Amino acid sequence: MPSDLITSLYVFVLAGFVGFQVIRRVSPLLHTPLMSLTNALDAIAVVGAIVIAGEHKSTLSTVLGTLAVIAATSNVVGGFLITDRMLRMFKESRPRK
Amino acid sequence: MSPFLTDRVIEVIYLVTTVLFIFSLQWMSAPSSARRGVLAGEIGMLLAIGGTLLHRGIIDYRPVVIALVAGSIIGVPLGLVHMTAVPQRTALSHAFGAFAVALVGSAEYYLRAPGVSPFMMSVLAAEVILGSLTFTGSLMAAGKLQEILPQRPITYKGQNIVNLGLLAIAVAIAVELVMHPERKFLFPLIIALPLLFGVLMIVPIGGADMPTVISLLNSYAGLSAAAMGFVLDSKLLIVAGALDGSSGFILSVIMSKAMNRSFTNVLFGAFGQVQPSAGAATQERPVRSATAEEAAAILSAANTVVIVPGYGMAVAQAQHKVRELYDALTKRGVDVKFGIHPVAGRMPGHMNVLLAEADIPYDKLLDMDAINPDFPQTDVALIIGANDVTNPAARNDPSSPIYGMPILDVDKARTVMVIKRSLSPGFAGVDNPLYYLDKTLMLFGDAKAFVGDIVRELGGEHR
């Protein structure tokens, strides 16, 4: 196994651990926006798709890459948009006079 | 810029994005900082996309630009759906994410085959299998949530064996490809079989299990993206996928606990069906019912009220009326709080969003563990459209199918009021002994109309 794959495995394991620790602290209040946010962040797959769409190595890869960019971009735009819309609705009660 | 320098710049940009993504989730921990979290995520995403456009491998920008524009056009309406439709929107976006991942995996295979190392072929297969099954599984879930597809679970004998057998065949073919990556004719099979598996996986799952399923699909989508990160040797993608995967995993575990399902049940895609109704022996037992006028009188005399909303409240579109009730009672000096069960709604946290949309302050929304100790000191527990999550049989009747499920201890309040159309059982098909307690008043009627009547009665006393 090449060493860069080992490095990738380390990154994966450590990121999973960070994710576990960070997500565990998210209040149940925000679990829906959390899911739509992680969904938007996950759409970072768009960067891989962009390269494949633009490389022009074969017609098949260009078509598949382009479709992938469309799907991922819609998640980026829609995901951030709805997360922010939801979070804007969460208001604290004003302290009583 | 020299090509070497460009590569380094992109690497650094990706590193910054990774850090921003972690901060983004960190800031989601509290409502006060959560919007900053979204901003951090957006900046990270813009940086990463901008950096990627510098990539020297890109020789033709037309498909990229067209796709970015088209994706944005599709994304905007998906970001503007109604709050009750958020679960199906989320399922749909899991499908889109998984679709993108499966497409990229396929493109990579056909570009690289036959020269694919065993490790590379393994992660490629994992990427494509996970991506494909998440794609159709999420579409099915979205269809069920949107009620295009029947929400009733469809089961048949040997279902688990058929489903798992199908997946096993796909994995076996993947193993064959790892050893012989040049056998290109096998590759479509590790797309087609998981696509079919994704459909069959969701067929036996009913509407009540959706919060678990949607979390599980979230986890799968994340893991498939992480696998894509291995294929493309992108640390950024690995981190984002791992974060998404662990998030979905944690939510699945929370949901399965709240539904009283075992951990293996979660790992195998909530294959367990809803238990058959335990011989619905509903004998005629007396219940006490009350009118809106009586309910209003009791509520306004109370010091503390806990409202327990269930999905029935959202179905009746009663959240804005509930908000009016909250206002009317608060104005009279009644302390009103909301007790939210983890599976109230169709996805994790859905009920909180629906109530926040109706302008109910979030510090009044308390989760199950926070509100349960308060019930013994609560004058009135008002249940609107919730059933199984308030069933005391889950706590004290070992023969009940829902025994062991964590519930809201509404029966410990001094008075319990239940707004319900009839005495029909809930999702689990279990009778609720709560309704026959001496302290329980049944308020028969439509949630929206009944809450509206109570509000009118409360307002009427001012005149």
Description:
The complex is a heterodimer of chains A (97) and B (463). Chain A has 97 residues and is mainly alpha-helical. Chain A has a domain at 28-89. Chain A contains 4 helices and no strands. In chain A, helix 2 runs antiparallel to helix 4 (59-89). The longest helix of chain A is centred in the last third of the chain and has 31 residues, at 59-89. Chain B has 2 domains: 3-267, no CATH class; 292-460, Rossmann fold (3-Layer(aba) Sandwich). In chain B, 57% of the residues lie in helices and 7% in strands. Chain B has 17 helices and 6 strands. Chain B has helices spanning 3-27, 31-53, 62-79, 86-112, 118-145, 159-179, 189-202, 210-232, 235-258, 263-267, 292-301, 311-315, 319-331, 350-357, 368-371, 393-396, 447-460; strands spanning 304-309, 335-340, 365-367, 380-384, 415-420, 440-444. Chain B has a 6-stranded parallel beta sheet. In chain B, strand 2, helix 14 and strand 3 (365-367) form a beta-alpha-beta unit. In chain B, 54% of the residues are buried. Mean pLDDT of chain B is 88; it is low at 269-281. The chains are: A mainly alpha (97), B alpha/beta (463). The interface between A and B is large, with 83 and 114 residues.
Question: Which terms would index this structure?
Answer:
A: 97 residues; mainly alpha; B: 463 residues; alpha/beta; Rossmann fold; 2 domains; 6-stranded parallel sheet
